[in-house]
């Protein structure tokens, strides 16, 4: 297959916008400039916002958007929305400017509401999100009291560093092998076997070269080398190693360069890579002589005590690795087939993605949410906490750590300007000055401050989850304590699990008086907890595959005077027996201060006791931050409450505002007591949705079924979603699943035809509800186009002309098709004689259509590396004209010629070899 030049891939952006009337050829703009805004074809896309285009017809219709600037390679997925409805996740061209989404018969809704988001951040509107309706941030609050122990202090062991490189591994679905490379830091003088901490970086540029050159492919091309992202956690590794931990940070560039091919964004592949490394460490623990020198130079590892640390998509990868270590994934999806010879005691997730919203419920976790994250800016990692509620036994502690002023990249020194070997940048950006997150603001952390805070809280999680030191728990569980080693970083925490007992978790059966039950994800402003126009402002309300999404609720409170209570009554009485406090997670608006309320309980006998009051202040926030985040507050279960209430039968929770006016949202309330119990993972069924690809056939209708794999033990409930083809409706149902049973059946009808088009996907997805886990959450049936593209010809219209006249050819399709047809045109060296140069063609055409300047004079075949022109044939049309306008000069010259070849593009936007070759001649006009 022919390589796509930078110029050619930029032309794919022109597909979206550049489309004059049929019969015109469209050039490729310069790779260094944004594509020119061209007129929209008459009557085809009227009303679409600037930058958008509808391409194709019928089943081949696609929605295409072009960014004026390349979208940086990051961890958040680019998503198309119509209002609050997720249309899908488009495919990106190699220039990362143009994105296309097959519509598969879905309706767009109002085109005025089209939006492009990545991690909740708006991409398609200049300056969008940079303003703020919130008041200016208040001065940061005083730091909390210091904790009894400070895990950020270096330990007593001498540390040694090294690296290893093993044979690359092939993973399912990836054409290129993935590297097995790692940076090792461990104690040289620690006795016995030591716990192991494995780090996995996120999705970043994979390769870099001279100057600022950077790329996202794999393997790296000649003249470039891999970005050493695995070397970016040395500070945290050295801290843990000094405390007696063996640490290894593994490279994943081979996954980053290919994860666009994976339906789950690479989560399963990253899990496979983690477990391949763990398997090697298990072998080396038993056979030290077979280990690389970097491993032999440090203390041996204890695979019964493993901590996983994942950054960004690496966070989703280690979550899946923890899940896969307890509940085996389907063999055909997994790159590791051996036994599980390790025990994962906990996960640390740094600014993580969670596209599947499928956290491992029985593996303790601490999730760092960077308050100034400019990549995964909706802080969707909160779902590693919220998404575990009610799924399993609830004994695993799941903590969220909101780090005010931290961005996404600086946790990794190899993604940090001034520290990295490869080009690096601050991922947080805004037009103008952001009051919270712009560098230099009082709330913004420097890179070194952020890295110190990150290392400290990684060590805190290790101390609690692996070493079992409960003195570290108050740093993670909402107890309002700090680690001085992280100063001046302000790190706030809340948690679920551990010794909490479920009390008030709002759901559809909850009765609310004085407030309202609101939907966390809903396009209807009357139902939604936050207006749809502030999407991404709350980590708790991070979107998933559908909107509205059932099963995710909170209690909204709004008051204009103090004293009116909000009463929350679940369907059945709850027990708070044995609890020390009632712990509530309450959201208030960013930058607000002094929200106060009283907390009262009532039992089924009608007895009421006021427990006390609580105060909640908002986080520092702006229009670019996700600062609607639940603060944990606790009120004690007093002696009076224990005497007057039947704590085994509590009926109602009352929250009575004491501030004059305000807004708040109750996420949940729990019975709380100190301590961290041992976690025994439950035996649960696991559900994986697969993908079946079939040929569409030439006629008739065939019924296929979405492949669903249920493994594990026991029975549980999942919620299954299946979009209705050709409609906006997504049907869902709650299903009880058991291994070996056929509880989930999703039939899909595929219609055959003989007309060339694109593949059509029919999707299904699942989420755990109770007593089950989900691995691969998204799959379906894809009907593969099995009809060849009709023959493309390029015939001369005027291939011998005098100076000043245009050369012309006509590209013709043998028969119309339902999709747009694209082709690149490359100028080749002529076989003999003088070649037409950049001074022989219209300079305006050359600049506007090819993106080149006339001088210095050079042959047309020397202008670009790859295609120079781009032809776009709209769906339903049969021909388009290619024109090369020449200029008349006064010099006496011999005949000059050009040679060009057509390269048709397939549905993956890749140019195909074998296109027709044409020549043209320009005669001297005198």
Give your account of this protein's structure.
With about 950 residues, the protein is mainly β. The chain is built from 10 helices and 51 strands. The strands form 11 sheets. It has a 9-stranded mixed beta sheet, sandwiched between helices. A hairpin with a 5-residue loop joins β13 and β14 (about 215). α2 (about 235-240) packs across α8 and α4 (about 265-285) crosses α6. The chain is globular and about 110 Å long. Mean pLDDT is about 90; it is low at about 1-45 and about 125-135.
Mean pLDDT: 89
Tell me the strand percentage band.
25-35%
N→C terminal distance:
44 Å
Number of helices: 10
Main sheet makeup: 9 strands, mixed
**Helix-and-strand structural type:** mainly beta
Radius of gyration: 30 Å
Low-pLDDT residue spans: 1-46, 126-134
Total beta-strand segments: 51
Give the helix proportion (percent range). Answer: 10-25%
Main β-sheet, spatial strand arrangement: 10-11-16-12-17-18-19-20-21
Shape: globular
What's the helix and strand layout?
Elements: H1 6-17, E1 26-27, E2 52-55, E3 62-66, E4 78-82, E5 85-88, E6 91-92, E7 98-102, E8 114-118, E9 121-122, E10 159-169, E11 178-187, E12 194-200, E13 207-208, E14 214-215, E15 225-226, H2 234-242, E16 246-250, H3 253-256, H4 267-286, H5 293-296, E17 301-311, H6 313-326, E18 344-350, E19 365-370, H7 383-386, E20 398-403, H8 447-466, E21 491-496, E22 501-504, E23 511-513, E24 516-519, E25 553-559, E26 566-569, E27 581-587, E28 595-603, E29 608-616, E30 631-636, H9 639-644, E31 650-657, E32 662-672, E33 685-689, E34 691-695, E35 701-705, E36 708-712, E37 716-723, E38 730-737, E39 747-751, E40 760-770, E41 773-774, E42 778-784, E43 792-798, E44 800-802, E45 806-813, E46 821-828, E47 834-835, H10 843-850, E48 869-873, E49 879-885, E50 896-904, E51 917-923
Parallel strand pairs: 12-16, 12-17, 17-18, 18-19, 19-20, 33-41, 34-42, 44-51, 47-50
Antiparallel strand pairs: 1-48, 2-3, 3-7, 4-5, 4-8, 6-7, 8-9, 10-11, 11-16, 13-14, 13-15, 20-21, 22-32, 23-26, 24-25, 25-32, 26-31, 27-30, 27-32, 28-29, 28-31, 33-36, 35-39, 37-38, 37-40, 40-42, 43-45, 45-49, 46-48, 46-50, 50-51
Helix pairs in contact: 2-8, 4-6
